[in-house]
């Protein structure tokens, strides 16, 4: 009797999350439909119509007081899954992810992935498309590979490179309810790293800031979809990342673009190839000619995406989801809005009508306000030496000079 009471108490306090991968028929329909329904905030990028990128969504994670929000861009890859960056939920501190200033609770690690199932965090999340809310309070967020410690392989000869190059910055949002795929649409998913081979041209759409030329941040609006074209650069990175830039040195992704998808045509279907992780937009000196962007390689995570979402090719699906049948979920009670209106211009709106600031993740400056010293970007490392053979090498020195100017968006 005593043990029964203990068990009941544990069950009452344990959050049980039952997320739904796609079943086999849903996965087959997704592959037929993804990346097709389209017409055929990026710094200096042009404004874009939502119909050009109906898979791009504006992400807001409000703080505990619900007075301001961290903003990112996400990409719809199924009716109930969105790809985004880990640092839209967590801050990087000395190579370790933290959530709201606390180290990751290892009890929430499932194999290599970290699961966010805390309703106190999830209920503060809103997702918008074309300035309208389309989802809120997701069921779960998976920070992919956030529970493992990486080490340098392809970049082992780089010296003094910051921690952010050896952590995974790739996350998946599991929505509670399916999205209505009419005005919004799902994009296809890259099948391998070969999709981000050097020289590949990609289209990026994001909801980031567009600060005036030469300024750190200005009144450039976030929440307006913008577009840029980038080309993958032939510079060594670990397999889970790649670098890209605008070949005309005109545009670069900025605050709020983080987590957004870079896409290309694969067999006539728009396919997400990269999830934006880092940029050097924050420093005006590093925009234009020196502008570079770092993306998580979606092809690298293809099997993880299959395992976690049911978005798979025919051979992969049965490996992880053989015999799976989707079960109905209970309806959630209606939730009241977090705020009376959406953030505009990168500034969140206080519930009482007082404008607040929209904080950015660690290693990135907050919009229109000085950064907290504990959140500052890594020290300028433009003078760091890179030598594959223990001696100075101009080629590798150039690579590190390019890589070292990034900060997380």
Automatic annotation (TrEMBL):
Q: Does the keyword Signal apply?
A: yes
Which PROSITE patterns does the UniProt entry name for this protein?
TRYPSIN_DOM
A Gene Ontology biological process annotation? proteolysis
The record's annotation in InterPro entries points to: DUF316 (IPR005514), Peptidase_S1_PA (IPR009003), Peptidase_S1_PA_chymotrypsin (IPR043504), Trypsin_dom (IPR001254)
- What is this protein called in UniProt? CRE-TRY-7 protein
> The Peptidase S1 domain covers which part of the protein?
42-310
Region span, Disordered: 323-388
GO MF term list: serine-type endopeptidase activity
Q: Which UniProt keywords apply?
A: Signal
Signal peptide boundaries? 1-19
Q: Does the keyword Signal apply?
A: yes
